[in-house]
Amino acid sequence: MICHYIDDFADDLGPEKIIHIYEPKSKLKAIVVIDNLSLGPAIGGCRMAADVGAREVFRLARAMTLKNAINGLPHGGAKSAILSEPSIVNKETLVRAFAQSIKKLTDYIPGPDMGTDENCMAYIHDEIGRSIGLPKVLGGIPLDELGMTGFGLAVAADVACEFIPLNLEGARVVIQGFGNVGKAAAKYLLERGVKIIGVSNSRGAIYNPTGLDIPVLVGRVGPDGDLAASGLGEPISKEDLLEVESDIFIPAARPDVFTEENQHLLKTRLALEGANIPITHAAAKEIHKRGILVVPDIIANGGGVICAATEYLSQTETSAFEKIKSTIGGNTRELLERTRETNFPPHEIALRMARERIAQAMAYRAHM
Ligand code: NAD
Predict the structure, then answer these.
(1) Does position 368 have pLDDT exceeding 90, yes or no?
(2) pLDDT at 301
(3) pLDDT one-digit tens code per residue, 226-251
(4) 192 — alpha (psi -120 to 50), left (phi > 0) or beta?
């Protein structure tokens, strides 16, 4: 079944299509939201989760519209969800059925997301010839292995430090979340001479004011392992880590970490949003008033999507690194110049930057 309708969440940007899929043979149920196509065919993750609704898929699709636009990619924004637990036995069958059901939706290019991975993308590619986040053998650029998002965060730090000003040599960095993004951010910032004084994961946190030995830590503890067991720092709770005083704080775990209620805990000079929406917009306004600089997610963590779009063009990882450097560097500079001129919170400016780029592209579209 395909239905197109305008719900109460539609606005001047989209969504262009909301598609509910039910395929009786495989029992596939899925939702695809194509938000805005002004900049080109939409890219956005395909999530596998049992409890996702159209509104949530739309919110995620909108985030992609904005992120793709601000990162100068020739792509609109979309998102999809296969409504199933990701641990099912017939995952491949369901993913292949999903691929067939979106075959004619040629303006949607799926990528990996929660519950899906490069194997799923390979099945989709095999069925319909389009997806991103592929295994290396099929031309994929392994963005987590290369730490592309963490690399982009370090580039944002380079530029932001000129504005504060802050010397990265010896700067104290705290990272919430020690997975793909957190570890890579640590790696690229260490190359710039920082001290990582605290890290956390879902189980706890460790703190060492003289700097944690990150390469040793990575060797000893997996993403959700026991950080305290490494013996490299003082064990503290993951909640206490949010209060550790730092020069740079990187939330790289989950959304809504700092809200209006607890934003006062953040004691840093620069926050780089590695995760998506780790600081709510209301909290970001208060944080801005307190003189803390924030580089918002759609700019700071754009490394992943820039890399995926580079892969889609069959270009190399070297080219992806170059694009991340120039795009995130340029965006951070524009953001902070405009923040300085207007004193508007960076989140507001980032949203304007993205919307301006979409508006320019929409001006070229035929009137319906
Ligand atoms: P990941 O699963 O590899 O790592 C997440 C880490 O966060 C793990 O170490 C986990 O233990 C930790 N964590 C979970 N809950 C926590 C909590 N309450 N306190 C402290 N730590 C906690 O995920 P990832 O790929 O590193 O992604 C991290 C975030 O960044 C996600 O929100 C993701 O959507 C976002 N993001 C990722 C990329 C990318 O390229 N991987 C790009 C853009 C945005």
Answers:
(1) no
(2) 97
(3) 999 999 999 999 999 999 999 999 99
(4) alpha
- Quick check: is 323 catalytic? no
Report d(CA 61, CA 80) in Å as an integer: 8
Could you say which DSSP state residue 137 is in? G
Beta strands in 230-321 (DSSP E): 234-236, 248-251, 270-272, 293-295
Quick one: which of 35, 118, 98, 134 has its CA closest to 358? 35
| Whole-angstrom distance, CA of residue 38 vs CA of residue 302 | 19
The per-residue pLDDT for 171 is 98
Q: Which residue of 180, 265, 305 sits with most ligand 1 atoms within 8 Å of its CB, as the best mutation to test the pocket?
A: 180
Helix 148-163 vs helix 180-190: crossing angle, to nearest 10: 50
Under 8 Å between Cβ of 228 and 204: yes
Ligand 1 contact, 238 CB (< 6 A): yes
Ligand 1 within 6 A of CB of 143: yes
Question: Over pLDDT 70: what percentage of the chain?
Answer: 97
Q: Tens of pLDDT along 292-308?
A: 999 999 999 999 999 99
Ligand 1: nearest atom to the Cα of 223: 9
Q: Please give the helix or strand (H or E) that residue 324 lies within, else none.
A: helix 317-342
| Side-chain half-sphere CA neighbours of 128 within 13 A | 22
Whole-number Å distance between alpha carbons of 159 and 148 = 17
Q: Active-site residue among 25, 27, 29, 79?
A: 79
